[in-house]
Amino acid sequence: MNIPVETPSHQYEVRIGDHNLTADIQSIDPIIQKADKLIVLTDENVWQLHEETFTKAFPYPFTVHVMPAGEACKTFENYYAVQTFLLEQKATRKTMIFAFGGGAVGDLTGYVAATFMRGVPFVQIPTTILAHDSAVGGKTAINHPLGKNMIGAFYQPEAVIYDIRFLETLPKREVRSGMAETVKHAFISNRQWLDSLLQHTVYDFEGTALAEQLEKGIRVKADIVARDEEEHSVRKFLNFGHTYGHAIEAASGFGKVAHGEAVMIGIVYALLIGEKYSQLSHDFTKEVLAFALRSEYPFEAVSNFTFETLLNYMMKDKKVEYGKLQFVLLDEVGAPFVQEISADEAREADTRLRKLLQEVGK
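Request: output the structure for the sequence above.
Response:
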């Protein structure tokens, strides 16, 4: 299945299939023929698992550079090391880069592509569920110790090629992390879809069923990105659950709590705040929490930090405006909006979340 992504700066396709890597890379042959060399950036975990499969399936000669796994991929040091590698390989503006890995590999590769010689073409080849979100839409970044994704650029890929065979080896933690973004897409778009998800756990989708969930999520994101490429308006809705979630993720030390795990915690927190502003009830919040706990999201991470610590990270969030917290909330499922939230309101919601978690023994 092919999903078009049309932004003011660039148009491309997300291609989803099973054992489709060879054919879908060949489908962009006119672009590849313009390249003087092809360089694949991946991480040590992905390459250990998939080197043989990828090498057999990739239909052109390429050079590979293997990076540290996880958020260590998105450091200044690794960014610099990759730029050095490209220069050593005598890469040029005609060199094409492929990101083969999860969200961290894609984010790093995209930012490298955006900045090497002021921009070279790149292709996303995601290997995680989470990357159905991060690989689409052109957000690229590396981390700073004081904040996640603080150094980056909007830079669209030439294509996103999703071969779901690479998802078969994912551990449960990666399934949890990736499916959180799928659930988020349901929250901001479609009550019927969300209700069907809440009847399951995130581990209940495999093969074709998983591909269908990813397709739904990608279509939601593609529609929003087409309307707002650089997050001036509706693209902010994609940050539902991210403000508190990013604070949990950053306070824990990047990589200790997976991105999607933190987002799911942030979704429950946002629902608690939203009870004051929306038509959604506290019973609905508890239903979502029950789903999240059945799916083994690590809510115990909340108790590791004081609210003041988390507030400090939230105030560094890119969505803060004039020193005010900006939260994406839901009037109802499928109807997101942005609301300015005071520190006192944020503190009250944090207290309510901790109390709710105590009631369920987390």
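The CA atoms of residues 40 and 86 lie 11 Å apart.
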